[in-house]
């Protein structure tokens, strides 16, 4: 159900909320593309404050000790598999590298999410036909 607040996201790390089951918290897991290439690590989860659902994973790559890392948002819809230490997505590393640039000033703007979802080929999660993926209980293993 769409409300005027649907689509407003917050980073989980900026809230007092936690993931109920620690085994389902995918932060700090490696992200792999559909061919097994390394993309980076899940650094945070962007959560819809109204519906309390994860909508994007924030992935960081490169850098040293957190300095100079590139960040990008990947829709949870792209996740195909979650293992104990990896998150697999249905995109290529090259496609992720070409995603709209991460801009911390635009993190809470609905239009930003729409452009990212469109880039990856997904419709808006606030749309009437949207079906939330089975996150985080995807096919376990590969």
UniProtKB/TrEMBL annotation:
An annotated GO cellular component: plasma membrane light-harvesting complex
GO biological process, one term: photosynthesis, light reaction
Domain PRC-barrel: 22-95
InterPro entries attached to this UniProt entry: Bac_photo_RC_H_C, PRC-brl_dom, PRC_barrel-like_sf
Cited Gene3D superfamilies: Photosynthetic Reaction Center, subunit H, domain 2 (3.90.50.10)
Pfam families in alphabetical order: PRC (PF05239)
Highest taxon in the source lineage: Bacteria
Protein name: Sporulation protein YlmC, PRC-barrel domain family
């Amino acid at each position: 159900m769409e409300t005027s607040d649907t689509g407003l996201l917050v980073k989980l790390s900026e809230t007092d909320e936690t993931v109920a089951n620690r085994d389902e918290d995918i932060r700090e897991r490696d992200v792999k593309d559909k061919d097994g290439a390394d993309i980076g690590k899940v650094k945070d989860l962007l959560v819809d404050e109204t519906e309390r659902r994860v909508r994007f994973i924030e992935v960081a790559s490169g850098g040293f000790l957190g300095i100079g890392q590139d960040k990008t948002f990947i829709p949870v819809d792209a996740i195909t598999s979650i293992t104990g230490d990896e998150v697999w997505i249905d995109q290529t590393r090259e496609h992720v590298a070409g995603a709209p640039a991460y801009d911390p000033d635009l993190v809470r703007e609905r239009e930003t999410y729409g452009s990212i979802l469109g880039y990856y080929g997904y419709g808006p999660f606030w749309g009437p036909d949207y079906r939330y993926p089975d996150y985080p209980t995807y096919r376990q293993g590969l």
